[in-house]
Amino acid sequence: MKPVISIKEITKIYHVGEIQVHALRGVDLAVQSGEFLSIMGASGSGKSTLMNVIGCLDVPTSGSYHLDDIDVSSLSRDAYADIRNEKIGFVFQGFNLLPRTSALENVELPLFYDRRHRIKNPQHAAREALERVGLADRMHHVPSQLSGGQQQRVAIARALVNQPSILLADEPTGNLDSRTSIEVMSVFQELNGQGITVLLVTHEEDISQYTKRIVYMRDGHILRDQKIEKPVSARQDLEKKMEEADAAAL
Ligand SMILES: Nc1ncnc2c1ncn2[C@@H]1O[C@H](COP(=O)(O)OP(=O)(O)O)[C@@H](O)[C@H]1O
Ligand SMILES: [Mg+2]
């Protein structure tokens, strides 16, 4: 089977004044459809740079990148933006929601940038995406009326509204407490179970145990690539935590 993401010998050099920063120093990575991958590594090891290349937000200095068998480097500016809009959904650590805007409108937003108007009814699509993350009853709330975990779920719904085949999440649980982090991981596990390929950056070992494969980075390289035979179920962990809380309350 052809991988959905195929990266060969990717480098990325940032120029800051006179200084060259080698953020990626020759990365090879193949990801099959339906995988759930976590990218781990110390701060500065190149995780976000790699995600931005994969997400077509940033162009590498050298190397090749094929997304769904399309040579991304060959694309025009518009085609590059289209491929990003149509195939990829992004989730960030800080949620990045518009503050005075309802959950529903936040989720609809990416559809205004969809030049090809693949999705005919933005509001319907946004409602469906919010239902998928379990927030049907919070559509008209603005971010300040939602908990951190709920805000991140709105952000996941916004990432889903274009019906992407790949979800990229850069430290999506970085601002959340441990219980809420597990809730968010259970959403990702569920979406992955529905066939979406998920790549997430984390530096928490606990979080990576919910994924199916861990890629370790150091100094712009992939150091190790490990399959998880039996990922931990976030849903089961949540149930266990609830039972423990109930027992403690007795
Ligand atoms: N836009 C940028 N301009 C200059 N240097 C950058 C930029 N983005 C990242 N870097 C540098 O590239 C290296 C890798 O950064 P990054 O990919 O953000 O690492 P991580 O996400 O693993 O913390 C770091 O040394 C960082 O300072
Ligand atoms: Mg980062």
Gist?
By secondary structure, the chain is α/β, with parallel strands linked by helices. The protein is built from eight helices and ten strands. Strands 6-7-8-3-9-10 form a six-stranded mixed sheet, sandwiched between helices. A four-stranded antiparallel sheet has the order 2-1-4-5, with helices on one face.
Task: Explain what this protein looks like in three dimensions.
The chain is an alpha/beta fold and about 250 residues long. It has a single domain (about 5-250), classed as 3-Layer(aba) Sandwich (Rossmann fold). The protein is built from 8 helices and 10 strands. The strands form 2 sheets. The protein has a 6-stranded mixed beta sheet, with helices on both faces. A hairpin with a 2-residue loop joins strand 4 and strand 5 (about 70). Helix 4 packs across helix 5 (about 150-160), helix 5 packs parallel to helix 6 and helix 6 runs antiparallel to helix 8 (about 235-250). The model has no long low-confidence stretch (mean pLDDT about 95). Bound molecules: adenosine-5'-diphosphate and magnesium ion.
